[in-house]
Amino acid sequence: MPFAAITYDIKPGYEKELTEIFGNFKRVRGSNVTDESGRTAGTILATAVFLRDDTLVRVIEYTGDLEAVARHMAAQPGVREVEKKLKPYLSKPRETDTTEGFVATFQRSLLKTVAQISVRDQAAAPAAPAAAANPA
Question: Which tens digit of pLDDT belongs to each residue from 90-118?
Answer without folding.
Answer: 999 999 999 999 999 999 999 999 998 88
